[in-house]
């Protein structure tokens, strides 16, 4: 190591279980002996898992109490840890020379115990690829696992040693942020930082609601940095109960004022939580409105405490534009404008909560400033501002793509510049009325909302639609070299862009609907039942074999959409031979159509590369699409090698595999 110490090398060994390893009966007996005393001393959580929640799987699987989320062996270990913690706390506080420091130390020790809880529950699994334990909330939910793993808590260097070491590491990094002078030796010499005469600034930690910072004076803060809840992404309070019920019995004996509630406060949490409105009509829509109102109140409080020249940096990401609409409305109504935006890759590709999903890897950093005094330019109209929004996206999209941003992240990244331009001209209205949505004509919306329909209203979602149109145009040019060939038909464009954006066969129906609107496609009549199926809140794309099995391949000559001809060819190649696929296209005179060649080129750039070319296993849901890629790429090489070049994504994969080898 840099310090000169010999670096230890760990080698993990494995063996088959033995009969003497099964001590479950002894564990149950020991736990039963301790349980009555622990319950009397309030060592073990007795709280029930709430029934009014978004994820009631613990109850469904026979775990009605929070302590049921642990096996007998795990519960015995955690209960013993809490018991020892309380004994130590009482002993140390009795003769503490510095009570405040002792309380802080025990608070950190409580967090270490909670870290062990996170990695040692019935929902903790073994990750064979990394040979480590995965924590309980790798998926941000209460996903039940049939075969959980357990940590041996008392192994030297592991178990509690590891948990305490990890907590200490976090504390050290936090201290380094606020006391850079104490860690000046760690700073890069290239930064040229001088800590001579550095005076640590005062730091105040508060535990208050973000919409009521009554301890902070008006216009007194230079900068606000906020990472708010991402709409309905994670129900933090619901998940936090897992930790809270144990912290009450450890840190709650140090800071009792912070743990007076039975469980965490879910009612006042700023998330779009339909469980708050269970039993009410339109619970999901009501949850969205609740989120918008709560975030608007928080932003208004940030506006109050910020200096006139202050700045707020806001982190946000969500695939659903409704989430962006709610957040941006709250921002602008509170008196902010967005002056800059930057996409930052914040998700590890191996994260289980995004694995095999059409998930976003990037977080968008929005730079917001208080809006100044109105300039008096008069009413501004969307028809005049929309071209400015589109121009803002055009100026940034190439930069984003060259920076390695792909798929759904490219769309999300372009939301930033679109909202920058939009917020500068807020408030807006339309010069020409927009048509009333079909859903409202059927009176679905009027049952949920009281406000009148305003055909002249403009919302942030209009800016996001404009951004999506620009990304669509840009990506299709990239995928099909459109200037040299025919333009894709609307349905084929939608199919290509769906795979390009989400890189998975399943993605939110609402986002599919917005993409269809941009492409000029009726999702319910042209896509559902023909190219895909709706399942709950998702849309599931079909591969050629699924379409054939359902009798929904369409006509092979591509007169309705070229994706039909593409899928006919793929199915013929998969179920029969490549020659059969070529003959099918020749028979219907599609093989020489520029539109077909453009479609083939684009589809080969977006479908997942199959096992025949990538030598990698795709997720089960994408196997059919991968087989389509293999069939179409083989057909291209046989019949269209001169007209259609090798897919860029395949070139990149082959280059990467060659370099790795």
Can you characterise this structure?
This protein is 46% helix and 9% strand. The longest helix has 23 residues, at 72-94. The protein is globular and about 90 Å long. The chain folds into 3 domains: 22-184, no CATH class; 272-464, no CATH class; 481-660, no CATH class. Helix 1 crosses helix 3 (72-94) and helix 9 packs antiparallel against helix 10. It has a 4-stranded mixed sheet with strand order 3-4-6-5. The chain has a 3-stranded antiparallel sheet with strand order 9-11-10. It contains 22 helices and 11 strands. The protein has 661 residues and is α+β, with helices and mostly antiparallel strands. The chain has helices at residues 24-40, 57-60, 72-94, 99-118, 159-178, 236-247, 283-305, 321-333, 382-402, 407-424, 438-441, 460-480, 490-502, 509-519, 523-527, 544-549, 562-575, 578-587, 594-606, 611-614, 623-639, 648-660, and strands at 125-127, 132-134, 221-226, 306-316, 336-345, 362-370, 380-381, 428-429, 506-508, 532-535, 538-541.
């Amino acid at each position: 190591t840099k310090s000169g110490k010999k670096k230890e090398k760990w080698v993990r060994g494995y063996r088959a279980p033995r009969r003497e390893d099964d001590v479950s009966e002894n564990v149950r007996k020991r736990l039963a002996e301790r349980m009555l005393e622990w319950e009397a001393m309030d060592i073990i959580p007795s709280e029930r898992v709430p029934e009014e929640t978004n994820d009631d799987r613990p109850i469904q699987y026979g775990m009605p109490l929070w302590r049921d989320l642990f096996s007998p062996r795990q519960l015995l270990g955690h209960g013993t840890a809490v018991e020892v913690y309380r004994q130590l706390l009482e002993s140390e506080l009795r003769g503490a020379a510095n009570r405040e420091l002792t309380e802080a130390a025990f608070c950190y020790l409580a967090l270490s115990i909670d870290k062990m809880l996170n990695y040692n529950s019935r929902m903790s699994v073994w990750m064979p690829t990394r040979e480590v334990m995965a924590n309980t909330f790798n998926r941000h939910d209460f996903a039940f696992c049939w075969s959980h793993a357990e940590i041996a808590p008392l192994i030297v260097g592991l178990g509690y040693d590891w948990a305490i070491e990890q907590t200490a590491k976090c504390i050290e990094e936090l201290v380094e942020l606020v006391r850079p002078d104490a860690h000046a030796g760690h700073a890069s010499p290239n930064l040229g930082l001088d800590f001579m005469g550095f005076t640590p600034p005062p730091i105040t930690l508060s535990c208050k609601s973000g919409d009521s910072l009554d301890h902070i004076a008006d216009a007194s803060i230079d900068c606000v940095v906020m990472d708010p809840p991402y709409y309905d992404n994670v129900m933090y309070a619901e998940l936090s109960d897992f930790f809270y019920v144990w912290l009450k019995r450890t840190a709650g004996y140090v800071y009792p004022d912070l743990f007076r509630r039975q469980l965490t406060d879910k009612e006042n949490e700023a998330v779009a939580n339909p469980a708050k409105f269970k039993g009410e009509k339109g619970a999901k829509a009501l949850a969205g409105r609740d989120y918008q109102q709560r975030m608007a109140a928080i932003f208004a409080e940030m506006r109050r405490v910020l200096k006139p020249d202050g700045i707020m940096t806001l982190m946000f990401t969500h695939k659903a534009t409704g989430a962006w609409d709610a957040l941006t409305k709250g921002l602008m109504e509170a008196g902010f404008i967005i002056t800059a935006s930057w996409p930052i890759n914040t998700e590890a590709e191996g994260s289980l909560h995004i694995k095999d999903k059409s998930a976003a890897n990037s977080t968008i950093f929005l730079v917001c400033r208080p809006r100044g005094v109105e300039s008096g330019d008069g009413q501004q109209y969307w028809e005049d501002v929309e071209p400015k929004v589109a121009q803002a996206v055009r100026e940034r999209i190439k930069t984003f793509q060259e920076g390695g941003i792909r798929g759904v992240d490219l769309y999300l990244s372009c939301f930033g510049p679109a909202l920058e331009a939009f917020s500068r001209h807020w408030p807006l209205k339309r010069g020409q009325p927009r048509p009333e949505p079909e859903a409202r004509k059927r009176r679905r919306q009027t049952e949920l909302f009281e406000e009148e329909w305003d055909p002249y209203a403009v919302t942030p979602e209009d800016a996001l639609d404009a951004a999506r149109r620009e990304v669509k145009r840009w990506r299709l040019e990239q995928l099909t070299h459109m200037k040299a060939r025919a333009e894709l038909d609307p349905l084929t464009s939608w199919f290509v862009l769906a795979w390009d954006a989400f890189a998975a066969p399943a993605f939110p129906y609402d986002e599919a609907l917005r993409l269809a609107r941009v492409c000029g496609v009726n999702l319910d009549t042209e896509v559902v039942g023909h190219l895909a199926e709706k399942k709950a809140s998702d849309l599931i794309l079909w591969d050629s074999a699924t379409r054939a099995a359902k009798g929904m391949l369409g006509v092979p000559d591509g007169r309705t959409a070229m994706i039909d001809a593409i899928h006919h060819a793929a199915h013929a190649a998969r179920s029969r031979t490549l020659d059969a696929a070529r003959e099918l296209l020749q028979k219907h005179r599609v093989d020489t159509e520029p539109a077909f060649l453009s479609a083939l080129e684009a589809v080969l750039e977006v479908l997942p590369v199959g096992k025949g070319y990538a030598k990698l296993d795709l997720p089960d849901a994408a196997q059919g699409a991968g087989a389509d890629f293999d069939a179409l790429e083989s057909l291209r090489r046989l019949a269209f090698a001169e007209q259609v070049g090798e897919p860029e994504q395949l070139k990149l994969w082959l280059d990467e595999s060659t370099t790795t080898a």
